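Weekly modeling sync, notes
Attendees: S.R. (lead), two postdocs, one rotation student

Agenda item 3: backlog of single-chain predictions. S.R. asked that every request posted to the team notebook include the full sequence so nobody has to chase files. The rotation student volunteered to paste the first one in as an example of the format we agreed on. Action items at the bottom.

Example entry:
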Amino acid sequence: MALVSQVSNGATGSVARGRWNTAIATVETDTTITGDGTVATPLSIQTELDLVPKLDGSDPFTGLNVYSNDFAITADSGSIQGGSPLTKELNVITTCVTIGDSVTLPTAIAGIRLTIVNNGATSSDVFPASGATINGAGVNIAEPLTNGSSITYIATSTTSWLSA
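Predicted structure, as returned to the notebook:
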């Protein structure tokens, strides 16, 4: 167990990581004054804590970001804009049967960043949302993503995506 902090009046605390979202916290003191004024020594309290990622999206122990994700995307049959809309920061295509099966980026908001991994059997088409562009190509034009590859896109405006 790792020492976390000085709790109060010489008390120390520690936390041992349990399952993904729980931890065991222990607080130990040399002396304790009970409600009737008697002194009891020593005191050790152990409890299981529920942990959730911090508001900034990072894991409470490692500080690494926890991204929204979808690890089982099926590319829409045929090269069609609007098919299989991507809604997460990390997107993994697991089923892409025919060359040109497609996914569609969300409506761009400057600063959005998302990654697509194509683990399907064939190349997939990546469309922008209706009215937008990818890498300065024409409006509503798809970009291919070969199987076994990945790409990260960053929205630079409400109608433009650039690959990073």
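Discussion: group reviewed the output briefly. Residues 1-12, 14-21 have pLDDT under 50 and may be disordered.
Action items: rotation student to repeat for the remaining queue; S.R. to check formatting next week.
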